[in-house]
Amino acid sequence: MRAVQVDQPAEPAAPSSPPAASAPRGRWWVAGAAYGSYLVLAVLVLIQLWIAPGRRVLASNDDDHGFFLFVMAHGERVLFHGANPFFSDRMNVPDGINMMANTSVLALSVPVAPITHLFGPGVSVVLLLTVGLAGTAAAWYGVLSRHLVRRRLAAWIGGLWCGFCPAMVAHANGHINFVSNFVVPFLVWQVLRLREPGRVWRSGVAVGVLVTVQVFINEEILLFTALTMGVFVMAYAALRRREARDAAGRFAAGLGVAVLTAAALLAYPLWWQFAGPGSYSGQPFTAGKYVTDLLAVGAYARQSLAGNGAVARALSVSATEDDTFFGPGMLVMLVVAVIMLRRSAAAAATATAIAGLVLLVVSLGPRLQAAGVTTPIPLPFALISHLPVIDLVSVTRFAMVPATVAGVLLALAVDAARRLPDRRRTAFWVGLVVALVPVAPKPLPVVAADPLPPFLADGMWRAYVPEDRTLVTVPLPEVTTGRTGMRWAALSGLDYRSPRGYFMGPVNPPEDRTGSWSAPRRFTSDLLRQVGEYGREPVLGAADRRAARRDLAYWRAAVVVLVPDGRNGAVLQATVTDLVGRGPQRVGGVLLWDVRDLPPAG
User: Fold this and answer.
1) 404 & 469 share domain
2) Is the pLDDT at 325 greater than 50, yes or no?
């Protein structure tokens, strides 16, 4: 194994000493076993999706599952068709989608494009979710074992928590961007190395490159990391003033190099994100709407072994946002860990704990919420909630930081436990087992998805839809409704164009550029969504038919497609027939209205 120092345990904030020369450098099989265990656990968490990646969707988040199917298909088009990586014209016709302003994970979707091309986007989605969990755990294991702890077991436990804590497992319900945190530990380590002599340019450029890669995975996680490092550095500097003064110049210079490197690499992509076509500002909800419930910190997540669905639902926004849920045992062990480290790594452990605690408080939002009740007690987030960039973040996700901090503190405490007297060491290990076993993850639930009809699977649509026209599925692709249409488009490789979709874009440009989860409202899409949801056939007049004709012309529609025998299918069929003034034909398992010859409304 490799250690940081020969005599004293490492200080996480200032790990400048090289590994001990006498530490054995072999035992590659130990690291291999650690990485293998993470991979096996990740596969088990996603096993139900692995069984049929193209025919199942994650039960708790089929919206984002469908979105990332689209993202994978877009990555395939970038590599194999030369598509613009920052913009897609295959969905939301005629306006398109700003992919930089969405979580397009280009650093992941483009590298796996060959897999998407050969096996479909469903395989790429489950593969990246699996690699995200296992890779995050492995990355933390690597940094911890090489730089922060002596014992591989300590690094393995720390990596296990960082990769498979309740927050990570919750986001594995479709959030590829939030489980793919394998860049973060290396970014953190390179930032810390900026304090070392001779590292200004080397680590500065490394930080800039890692920041760039992280931008193309998840900017929210990058923001969380930056805020956490800022709090950590300030806390550590307050505890170690002389050391901080000595390193301040080098650290600042290295950050300057990092900023210049990242700015040069990201200038054009960020222009696309904030000023390009389809860009937006703000969220479709206020910053304090979704926050961490105080009681969720000591509860169990719904995907933990000891989790209770009813309790978790009462304390969490959704199954994907169980961002704390440590359980009572883990809270006790974290307190024990901080106490244990007060001597061996006092400043570093204290600064790390402070950073995690600050971000946990931020995740509580502008006012304290407990047991689902918002109290009048004000919290610090109210002071920063309207700042640019902060207003783009879902507040509860700030709690992913203390979740990761908990893994680092656990690793340090396990490493320090070897110096405890026998009885205390035994008590420590019993407590750790009691804390970890109840939060062990369960396989994520899935449901069967609507199969791709032969009309699409066999390419029959090509006889009806020219390149400059669109295929309109009913209901149209939207958030929470019409998911099937977006999923079908993705599984078809985005070979045909579609109107609307589930994505982030301006709600009503150019008058209102506030972010929205769907395209600007249209009469026909609203009508068909309501009919599909509630099954009530509307009474339509001539003005309604003219409005529908205008929408079809706006969408450049060639055909309107409905799967018979679906939810409220008979009412939808009657409504579409009334709107276009003709009945459908049955082709390849779908009902099809050919509207290529339909004259536009006057």
Assistant:
1) no
2) yes
